Amino acid sequence: MNQAQNRIESIKENGYTLEFENVFNLVFENYKKIAIYAGLIIFVFSVLFFATVFISLSAYFGMETITDMLKPENLKPENLSKEFILIYSGCAIIFTCLISPFTAGFLKMAYCADKDQEFPISALFQYYKLSYFIELFIATFFITIFNTGITNALDLAGLPIVGSIITMLVSFYTLLTIPLIIFGKLKALEAIRTSIMIISKQPLVILSLVAVSMVAAIVGLIVFCIGVLFTIPFLYSLYYILYKEIIGFEEIE
Fold first, then answer.
1. Counting C-beta atoms within 10 Å of the first and last residue's C-beta, which end of the chain has fewer, N or C?
2. Any idea where the domains of the chain sit in the sequence?
3. What's the gap between Cα 159 and its chain centre?
4. Minimal CA–CA distance to 27: which of 102, 106, 109, 110?
5. Does residue 49 carry a pLDDT above 60?
6. Taking the CB of residue 121, how many other CB atoms lie within 10 A of it?
């Protein structure tokens, strides 16, 4: 049993303490170290991705078809066919699963910033190694397919707000899943269960921290659209610091 597993067992029995002010200060200090670097990486990869997708779809379907599909009236849920919703949901789930190791790389960036270590761009792809990739894919698949299924079902039932609330709750209680996989070496399903257990011990403090982080991201979007790319890394710093403060790392001399 490694250090993380020992700590998890202790948390099950005794819980843990978490102070909002202390955690927030640590998150902000970590965020300052990665904000520009992470923001630029997110910007570059986002531009490359959307350009590639748009060009590929335009070449396959034609520019007129793509332009027509992107009209606001054609994107309303009631105007979308069930076949389209299923195909879109399936593609979204697979895409989310495939990029989960990439997003996990930003947690490693936060770790390296905390330890004052260099972080080459190539390190963003280190979790595509098979041992990590399988667990990250499985965990993301289960969480995403549950959220997508609930959202689509309640949207069709005319209860979109309920679906959104359930989706947010699931995302909230599983937010430590990826850190537990890459840092704690847990398996996918065990990481999901453990994340739910940990968050359940201190939900109000963690919810307050997440809320502040989300407000920061929204402010970045309102002030200037591209600004959100530089506030998103605040969430990665938050997830890393939460793992560090709750589970911790085994120090090796």
1. C
2. 3-10+20-246
3. 25
4. 110
5. yes
6. 12
DSSP for residue 72:
G
Q: What is the mean pLDDT of the chain?
A: 85
Q: How far apart are CA 51 and CA 31, in angstroms?
A: 28
Placement of tokens 């978490």 in the chain? 18
Distance CA 125, CA 172 (A): 25
Amino acid of residue 155: D
Task: Please write the tens of the pLDDT for every residue from 80-120.
Answer: 666 767 777 788 889 999 999 999 999 999 999 999 999 99
Task: List, in sequence order, the alpha helices (H) in the chain.
Answer: 3-14, 20-61, 63-69, 82-114, 130-156, 160-173, 177-182, 188-201, 203-223, 228-231, 233-246
What residues have CB less than 8 Å from 23, skipping those under 6 apart? 205, 209, 241, 242, 245
Q: Is 81 helix (H, G, I), strand (E, B) or coil?
A: coil
Residue 134: closest CA among 194, 187, 193: 187
Residue 1 confidence (pLDDT): 62
Reply yes or no on whether the pLDDT at 243 is more than 70: yes
CA dist., res. 103 & res. 41, Å (int): 11
